[in-house]
Amino acid sequence: MTDTSSHDIVVGVDGSASSAAAVTWAAQDAESRGVALSLVHVVPPIVLPSSPMPDMPASYARAEEDRARRIVDDARKLASEVAPHHVSQINTEVITGPIVPTLVDMSKSAALVVVGCLGQNAVDRALLGSVSSGLVHHAHCPVAVVHTEHSPSPQDPVLVGIDGSPASERATAIAFDEASRRGVDLVALHAWTDMGPLEFPSINWAPIEWRNIEEREEEVLSERLSGWQAQYPDVKVHRVVVADRPGLRLLEHAGHAQLVVVGSHGRGGFSGMLLGSVSSALVHSAQVPVIVARQD
User: Fold this and answer.
1) What DSSP line would sit under 113-152, residue for residue?
2) For the chain, what is the domain count?
3) Do 168 and 117 share a structural domain?
């Protein structure tokens, strides 16, 4: 057993297909970053009723320990196959404790926490997995939620949602870094209104003031991206400015992306423990990996 180190990528593993997808994605990302990968299985404590109960047989405890070890060993084997040149930096750990609080605590010293979108039981499969949902609401670092429904092409671009909020700026930094390491384009989508689609029969019919707003928003987006483009000259950026609900448009573009990066809450949103409506929609509905740019 090896303790996790600071600023590594932590993956919560549970033996499910969704967990395997998270390990595969995280192993590739850790290798490209050159950071350690920590595969962690958290065993929740057994809660017994207050009434007298017979002692738990020792065989049960041994069976649970063996199961936990198999889960992390299988995850390590998979990660080693995905990133064979990174084996020396792949660590495993089994921890007993409440799952979400344990991983949230580990997120304080991690560069990124990665989980599958679904858990093992039927309730988790009906909704967003309880672990992934808890982390995207409470983690202290960015969280990647990996879906199993679709395998995007490694040539597809990275997609980032930009709204001018501090969380959006953090998402932009992550998106440029991911696009640069993957050698792909970046699509930067900026929705300058949340009112829904605003269309006119002809552009010439639109009030001149409206067209001026759109032109100004395009200039604002260019200014927000200029510093990052100077830092990452290898990344080709496609700017998309829309007057529509950002969640809807991001979901549309996510179908042609390999990764989506969004802030944990947007303009006018609540900070702290709440998840913004846009990031929540993406985490629940996108079929590609989503990074929610959480930070303290």
Assistant:
1) EEEES--SSHHHHHSS-HHHHHHHHH-SS-EEEE-SS---
2) 2
3) no
> How are beta strands 237-242 and 9-12 bridged, if at all?
unpaired
Residues ≥6 apart with Cβ < 8 Å to 57: none
CATH number at residue 231: 3.40.50.12370
Summarize pLDDT for 29-74 with one digit per residue, the tens: 999 999 999 999 999 877 656 656 566 666 766 788 889 999 999 9
Give the tokens for residue 164: 């001018």
**pTM (2 d.p.):** 0.84
How far is Cα 259 from Cα 29, in angstroms, rounded to an integer? 12
Average pLDDT over every residue of 234-257: 88
Give the tens place of pLDDT for each residue, 193-224.
554 444 545 555 555 455 566 677 788 788 88
Q: Containing H/E element for 39?
A: strand 37-43
CA distance 57 to 88: 37
**Residue 140, domain member (yes or no):** yes
* Residues β-bridged to residue 112: 9
